[in-house]
Specification:
The protein has one helix and nine strands; from the N terminus they run βββαββββββ. The protein is mainly beta. The longest helix has 7 residues.
């Protein structure tokens, strides 16, 4: 059976960024998703469409095909008070590299990465893989018809990652704790 819309796909993958492994499926735990339902990058799906179980893949996505270029306006400075809960800032919260789920003034959920802490906190609200060239390799494990129980809301995670909370992130390493 070939990968096409309304098929459920299981695949093993490795994502390399700048020559380093950024993410990969775990042994015996392939990435599983309904093809064409918006869980993965459209360019990723375009590269695996038509493949069958046992087929290997290797391709590279430019930043434009992946998560876009870095948007300078998405890097902002916020007062430290923004991070206070009950008058205190949780110890270790404002550590460079730490990802913090936040909301904007309209209630939209965002995931920001602490860049720098001083008098103010510099936060980057770009996707962690923005501006990166993504190199994928892998193998299709299985392709079958999608069942109703296979469907779940796309992007069901507050961290901004796609595909729900399955302890994998084919798109940039969800380390926000409690989701994927």
């Amino acid at each position: 059976m070939k990968i096409e819309k309304n098929r459920f796909v299981s695949l093993n993958y490795k994502l390399e960024v700048d020559g380093q492994i950024a993410d990969q499926s775990r042994p015996g735990q392939p990435l599983e998703f309904p093809f064409g339902a918006g869980y993965l990058l459209p360019a990723f799906e375009a590269h695996i469409e038509g493949l069958s179980a046992g087929d290997k893949f290797e391709f590279t996505l430019t930043p434009e095909q992946g998560y876009g270029e870095v948007i300078r306006e998405a890097i902002v400075e916020l007062p430290k008070e923004t991070f206070m809960i009950n008058g205190q800032i949780e110890e270790g919260l404002l550590t460079p590299g730490n990802q913090i789920p936040m909301s904007d003034s309209q209630g939209n959920r965002l995931l920001g990465t602490v860049v720098e802490v001083g008098e103010v906190v510099k936060m980057d609200f770009n996707h962690p893989m923005a501006g990166k060239t993504l190199h994928f390799t892998g193998e299709i494990v299985n392709v079958r018809e999608t069942r109703p129980e296979d469907l779940r809301p796309a992007g069901g995670c507050s961290c901004g990652c796609e595909g729900g909370c399955d302890e994998h992130d084919h798109k940039g390493g969800c380390d926000c704790g409690g989701c994927h």
